[in-house]
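TICKET: design request
STATUS: open
ATTACHED STRUCTURE:
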């Protein structure tokens, strides 16, 4: 399924199976089996429900992945808290053993190869600023980027020592703007006070 040279435009690219497996496992945890099946049925990809047994380094075409994300966004429209919880689980399942945050960002761009980019543009002991261009998880007008922001916040949190925590600086996004899926996210790192 990874040869999609005939696809054009915004849907060209590939996604590693382990990304799809991680998002499906996140659905399973938050929405249960029926919720996961509903998303796959809406995406017309019900055959992927057992993808966990497939080669994690294999790929699916980006068009199929985007169908899953679009179905999720349609079925969970205006369910910011659910999307946030799915994003937290997604961070856990995609990198279950933890990694340096910088390595997660680099690898993420390799795992989802399409016209998007995630990069750290500023880094210090107390702050990260992440630039996201054309986020694939919230490209539809009217859809917030709660899932991917939760992924970033929790990926950084997992990479920190236990005496530190992450606080995002949340800015109100205009989900009705066609550009809302390109944004900067500032994450502050603070010491826990015991």
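STATUS: resolved
RESOLUTION: sequence designed for all positions
ATTACHED SEQUENCE:
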């Amino acid at each position: 399924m990874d040869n999609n040279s005939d696809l054009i435009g915004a849907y060209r690219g590939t996604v590693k199976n382990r990304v799809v497996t991680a998002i499906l496992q996140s659905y399973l945890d938050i929405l249960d089996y029926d919720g996961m099946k509903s998303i796959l049925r809406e995406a017309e990809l019900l055959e992927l429900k057992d993808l966990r047994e497939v080669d994690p380094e294999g790929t699916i075409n980006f068009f199929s992945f985007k169908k899953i994300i679009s179905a999720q966004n349609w079925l969970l429209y205006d369910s910011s808290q659910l999307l946030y919880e799915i994003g937290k689980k997604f961070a856990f399942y995609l990198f279950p053993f933890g990694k340096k945050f910088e390595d997660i960002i680099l690898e993420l761009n390799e795992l989802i190869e399409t016209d998007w980019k995630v990069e750290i543009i500023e880094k210090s002991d107390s702050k990260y600023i992440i630039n996201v261009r054309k986020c694939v998880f919230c490209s539809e007008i009217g859809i917030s980027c709660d899932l991917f922001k939760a992924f970033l916040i929790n990926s950084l949190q997992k990479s920190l020592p236990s005496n530190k925590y992450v606080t995002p600086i949340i800015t109100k996004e205009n989900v009705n703007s066609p550009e809302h899926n390109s944004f900067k996210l500032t994450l502050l790192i603070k010491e826990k006070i015991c």
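CLOSING REMARK: The first strand starts at residue 14 and ends at 16. Helices lie at 17-42, 62-75, 80-94, 101-111, 146-159.
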